[in-house]
Specification:
The protein is mainly alpha-helical. Helices cover 70% and strands 3% of the residues. Strand 1 (163-165) and strand 2 (172-174) form a beta hairpin. The chain is globular, with a radius of gyration of 18 Å.
């Protein structure tokens, strides 16, 4: 769907989602290893770890919400507008994209209203969550991440994936697969 100039213009959206997946992978790994670390680490470590987990969860929420920002140049709404103005883009694809952007907004609605608006960006929540109760965030992140990935893939015209190659003797971490594995395990 995108030519080279559009890929460059809309590239920051993909980078934003990459960083959301990176943070989600780190969050997942920290949660998986938390019980073992609690047995061997200090109480100071507990404070550091729980604070880090909350910061990672907040980062994921903010990044997913930024992809839904009406006024950003680097959001799904901006991509929809840019692609909607291109005559080279198939009208059926324009319609599909517009519907997918609307669906994404609905998918992240709870994250946006219950987490970002109340506790991160505006602090308007009457019942601020206990900063040490981070496990409640696990349930709400994999679905919006997958929805954002589906939308990026639609825009790019091919399935996208995000990962990190640790080194020549190490594996490449596939963030998408590892986060999707979490979703399948819970289904």
């Amino acid at each position: 769907m995108l030519d080279a100039s559009l890929k460059e213009e809309l590239g920051p959206m993909k980078t934003e989602l990459y960083h959301a997946y990176l943070a989600a992978w780190c969050f997942k790994r920290k949660i998986e290893n938390l019980s073992h670390r609690l047995e061997t680490e200090t109480r100071e470590f507990l404070l550091e770890e729980l604070t880090s987990l909350r910061a990672l969860a907040n980062e994921i929420v903010l990044r997913l919400c930024s992809l839904d920002d009406d006024k950003s140049r680097y959001s799904f709404h901006a991509a929809n507008k840019v692609l909607g103005q291109r005559s080279a883009v198939d009208p059926a694809m324009k319609t599909k994209l517009a519907k997918a952007v609307t669906k994404y907004r609905k998918t992240i609605g709870t994250l946006k209203t219950q987490h970002r608006n109340r506790y991160i960006a505006h602090l308007s929540g009457d019942h601020y969550p206990d900063p040490f109760l981070v496990t409640e965030m696990v349930e709400g992140l994999s679905g919006p991440l997958a929805a954002a990935l589906d939308l990026i893939s639609l825009i790019w015209g091919a399935k996208q994936s995000f990962g990190f190659h640790l080194g020549s003797r190490d594996r490449t971490i596939d963030f998408v697969t590892e986060i999707a594995t979490e979703r399948k395990a819970k289904s």
